[in-house]
Design brief:
Blueprint lengths: L4 H7 L6 E4 L3 E5 L9 E5 L11 H22 L3 E5 L15 E6 L19 H8 L1
Antiparallel strand pairs: 1-2, 2-3, 3-5, 4-5
The protein binds 2'-deoxyguanosine-5'-monophosphate (DGP).
2'-deoxyguanosine-5'-monophosphate binds next to strand 2.
């Protein structure tokens, strides 16, 4: 993918603060950090989103997210972590190469990455369940 910024990072065409790399996965600091130690974990192959990504790659990404969360806890003294993925334009994905955000959290860090909207009362949970199973 010639125009993909993360493929360029993988190929070395764009510099990054690389923290981890193996045959499947690379991790580096996000260029626009929302917290101290905000990291992106990506597959080396170009997969657009979670729907396209093979299971073994997702498994590896998950393990790398944990490994880096522990490093942030130990070295940056973070006291929590949010691990976030946006898959699809309607989920607010902006770079269309799969990536997981590892966002270390700190006491009273002022960040708010959680749901606060009212539950949508019009959603019929039984009906949704019946469709899904
Ligand atoms: P998302 O909205 O989930 O698709 O997040 C994309 C993230 O990618 C955003 O936090 C900024 C980061 N990003 C975009 N371009 C670059 C880049 O060239 N280098 C690095 N390190 N991060 C980038």
């Amino acid at each position: 993918m010639d125009d993909c910024v993360f493929c360029k990072i993988i190929k070395g065409g764009i510099n990054s603060y690389s923290l981890y790399e193996d045959d499947l996965v690379k991790a580096f600091l996000d260029v626009n950090p929302v917290s101290k130690g905000h990291i992106l974990v990506i597959p080396k192959e170009h997969y657009e989103n979670i729907f396209e990504t093979p299971d073994n790659v997702l498994e590896k990404i998950s393990l790398v997210c944990k490994k880096l969360s522990l490093i942030c806890r130990d070295k940056l003294k973070s006291t929590g972590v949010n691990i976030l993925n946006a898959s699809g334009k309607d989920a607010q994905q902006s770079v269309f190469h799969l990536h997981y955000h590892v966002v270390p959290r700190y006491e009273k860090d002022g960040l708010d990455l959680w749901f606060h909207q009212e539950a949508k009362g019009e959603i019929d949970i039984q009906n949704v369940y019946d469709i899904l199973v």
